Amino acid sequence: GIARLELDDLDFGFALRQKEHREKSKRAQAHLLDVFALGGCRREEEENFIDAIVETSVFESAVESAGLCKETFKAITSEAKLRPSELPKLRISRPVDCLNGLHRVAAAKNFLDRNDRWWIVRLYSKGTETFHRTVKLKLLIGDTATRLVESFAHEQRYSDGTIFRNIRRYHLLNDAESENRWWAHLTNTKRKDLRQLMKNNLIIAAFDRLLDFPGLWTPIQLGTLHRLHGLRCPEELNTYLQHIEAIWSCMVPSNSRRYVDTVTVQHLESCAPGVSENDERRVTFLMESNQIFATLPDEPGIKNEILQSIKSVRCLIPSLRTFFENQKYLEPCCIILRTLLGESEKRSIWKGFSANYFRPPELYVQYSEQSTRTFSLSESSVISFHAGKAIGYLQLWLFCLRHFPEMTSIAPKMTPGMKKQRRDHNPALWQKLGRLAVALGFRTPPALQLAAQSPDRENAMQFLQSARPSW
Predict the structure, then answer these.
(1) Which residues contact 348 (CB under 8 A, 6 or more apart)?
(2) Where does the source fall among the domains of life (predicted)?
(3) What is the SS3 assignment for 377-405?
(4) I need a surface site. Which of 33, 135, 284, 463 has the fewest CB within 10 A?
(5) Alpha helices, DSSP H, located in 114-200
């Protein structure tokens, strides 16, 4: 049967001697204490019950002391499975031999009040068929089962994205208890990184608008969030997140978004069915063969409506996986642009350049490395002011994307099998970037300083230093 037992009545010597249980770990105990503090010990949930062996005579004596007979006890415990708080509490004269739950009990002894130290235990009698089946199962499964059980039931390997999504869902529902249970799945480092992200109202609001699409969240790796913080370009990140929302909202009507699963996203991301005939044929096949939106009820016309919307997309279909992948392109550009702002600038890159923008008489537009065009900017037009700033800012990003291998230590990924080419830093490119920034109206102190330098002199100095290091 099932009963509530005092923690002091639970013994793990048998399991440890039989090598059925991993050794006691202070680290595992400390982790569970942290979990309990966030989400409670959840001892009344059936998946957290402990299995134990008890001598028949000890069990019968405990039942009798509780004023029950064996039949009544079994009937009560059978009915009380759905109401664990009504399970009888037994006082055992001799500790029972537990097969699992060592770290749960150790953590609970430090977490629970002294007058509330009990756990729910499934009791098996030695010599019974049920007992032998249970022990045999434990031995067959071995250490793998032990690790699964000892990881505590809620410590299943949920993806970071699933955890992140549920934290936000319950936060918006003001359900602190459920939110804390999901926080408990994360390591301290990931909690710190996620809390830092949640302080950015612009970015977190953009993530929240994607909650209706569960399949988008799976690829998120919270361990990479620190890279987002270091970029200092929240406006650009927000723009991409808005792009994801716009495309998926266009493809999938609101009442069908919960059927956007991981497989569907994996098949559709980075396709451009509106401009690629191959992609169009592929998404048609995937929909007709039920490989995408597999759980969507086959209501008249709904799948065809979604398919037609997908086929109308004329850009690469974005996802949160591509959002994080594209950080690799942003990172070297951000390094260059932050250098152009100077160390004292702590605001975002966009705000930093906006604060140093002085409208030039003409808008300078690069059509290639060698060709440019200029357009007159009206002094009285507010639209021209903002348009000139935005177009100029975009050109700085494009310059950095073209030249970052010779301006940073970050090299582009090579095709497998190809020899990596060495690219030395090119001072002339920095001088060229400074001149471009000033011409576009971004008169930051580092840009002005770079624009005043002679590229020939810098190249000559670099050559001499490499040829005569002792000079």
Answers:
(1) 232, 233, 234, 235
(2) Eukaryota
(3) CCCCCHHHHHHHHHHHHHHHHHHHHHHHH
(4) 463
(5) 129-150, 160-172, 176-183, 188-198
- For residues 395 and 377, give the distance between their C-alpha atoms in angstroms, rounded to a whole number: 17
- Residue 120's φ and ψ, nearest 5 degrees, are -90, 130
Cα 298-301-303 angle, rounded to 5 deg: 60
DSSP 47: G
Question: How far is it, in rounded angstroms, from Cα 183 to Cα 38?
Answer: 7
pLDDT digits (tens, 9 = 90+) for 162-183: 999 999 999 999 999 889 889 9
pLDDT at 151: 40
The mean of the pLDDT values for the chain is 84
The one-letter code for the residue type at 186 is: L
Site of tokens 């415990």: 77
Q: What is the maximal distance between C-alpha atoms in the chain?
A: 99
Q: How far is CA 421 from CA 123, 405, 411, 424, in A?
A: 68, 10, 9, 10
- CA separation, residue 430 to residues 354, 434, 446, 459 (Å): 20, 6, 10, 11
Distance, in Å, from the CA atom of 333 to the CA atom of 336, rounded to the nearest integer, reads: 5
Alpha-carbon span 223 to 204, nearest angstrom: 17
Checking if the pLDDT of 146 tops 60, the result is no
332, 338 Cβ separation under 8 angstroms = no
The pTM of this model reads 0.69
Which residue in 130, 137, 136, 124 sits closest to 1, CA to CA?
A: 124
What DSSP character marks residue 8?
Answer: G
Residue 214 phi, psi (nearest 5): -60, -35
Instruction: Tell me the C-alpha distance between 146 and 430, whole Å.
Output: 59
Hey, what's the torsion of the CAs at 148, 195, 221, 202, to 10 degrees?
150
Burial 342-356 (b: 16+ CB within 10 A, else e): eeebeebbbebbbeb
- The residue whose two tokens read 């650009």 is 236
Report the distance separating Cα 100 and Cα 51, nearest Å: 6
